[in-house]
Structure formats: C-alpha cells, structure tokens
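Format notes (please read before filing issues)

Several people have asked whether sequences and structure tokens are stored in separate files. They are not. Every record keeps both together, in the order shown below: the sequence lines, then the token lines. Line labels are part of the format and must not be stripped during preprocessing.
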Amino acid sequence: MKEKLLFFDIDGTLITEEDGTMPESTKKALMQAREQGHFLFINTGRTWKSLPERILHLNFDGYVCGCGTHIFFREKELLAARLSNKLCREVAETVRMYHVPVFYEASDAVYMDWKMPEAAKWEQTARDTFHVESGDIEDVLGSETKVYDKLLLFLEEGEKKEALLKYLSQYFFCIDRLHGMYEIVQKDYSKATGIQFICDYLGKSKEDCYVFGDSENDRAMLEAVPNSIAMGNAQEAVKQICSYVTTSIQEDGIYRAMKHFDLI
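Then the structure lines:
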C-alpha cells in the first residue's frame, strides 16, 4: 500500500481519559503502521509543553499541537502561530474580571491565574490535566514578550458565561467540550488546518489521510478527510460524522481500525 498519513488525537483516542494508559494493541498497531511506511502524526489540542512523556517516547513522525498552531515534522519546527503579547495581556485582564477558572496554554508553559477562586484546587487540576506545574499569568501580564497560544475555561451557565464567550469570540473559536469546559483556540487555526499544512508540505492529498478521534475538538479534522475514524468511546455526535466507528480504546479500537482499512 502507498504510504498514508495517520493523525491521532491523544486523550480518549491513544490513551484512556481515566488513567492515561495505552493498550499494548495500540502500541503494536503503531509499530506495524510505521513498518508499512506510513507517516504517524499526533494531532492534539495540547500545546507542546503538555504532551505526555509516554507519547513523546513513541517517536511519532510529526506533531500538530495547540489545535494547528504549532507543527513539527521529524524534529523540525514548521509552523508556530503566536498571539501578540498585547492581545494576551488584554484577554487575561478581561477574563480575570469574570472570576472563572482558566488555564493559559503556551508552547513552553501552562499559566493559571492565582487570583481566581479556589486557585489551589485548580492548580491540582492543572497537574492532572497538563502534567506540569502551573506558571503564573502575572508573568505574561508583566512582560512585553511572553505569550500563550490558547485557553481552557470552566464556565457555569448564566449571563456571565454568555458575555465572556461573546467577548472571546472576537479573537478565538470557542469549542464546547461539554460539562462547562471550553477550549479557546486561535480563529484561523484548527486540527484540520494542521492536516492541510502537513499535506501541502509532504505533497499528499486528504485522500491519503486517516484521522482518529473521539471528542468535539476533533470535529474539524474528522470532517476534513474522507477516512475519519471515531473511537467506540467517542461522543455520539462525533460518531455520526465519521466514515467508520471502531471499538473503544480498551477493546483494541486503534488496532481494529487499522486492520479494517488495511493499513497494517
């Protein structure tokens, strides 16, 4: 088979949401796909700083991070889309007025606002989610050079939520991750634009791409290619837009999907 481009979300696709484990069948499938000459890519909302070590140790060919804003291929940085420091400071100061839990994700750090309610509790959430210690957004507010790439917000229903999302929508695309969690990403970038960038760079078409995902922030990339695979544990709305639904992570979903498409 001609070499293909395989793009994988991380959480809920390659590793479990519950404890971050990866089935042996998934590792086997990735190894066999590489032996077949396919290119393997991570395509994630995570920034480079918060990529799990267990993922980096698998030596993927490339990484599309931060919802298409930061792209690497074989250790070469191909794209780094940055917000301006001025906009970063304006947004952080505005979000602070709403007193909501928020994380600011950069390629080299994850910042939180230590003035937000229950900051200590949310700092533990940051450790569990990003696997890094949180920096202080004051480092950005007091700098003329430091920036972040995206935000993660936790909002309760009400006028405050609607007002804040309306403000952020001027500059960002707001992805509803359900249960009050919103991923705030740069407007001109997505997991889909990341795939297009890689295709252009390697001279491939979207017909050469196979995309694996499970959640709403995978929608853009799953809708962008004809060969889209939803995990069995995916949200129902995600399953409905995919060309194939495999079994769950724990039920060898990645391995079974690759077998189905004759990728291994």
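For reference, the curators noted about this record: The two ends are 9 Å apart (CA to CA). The domain at 5-80+191-260 is CATH 3.40.50.1000 (Rossmann fold).
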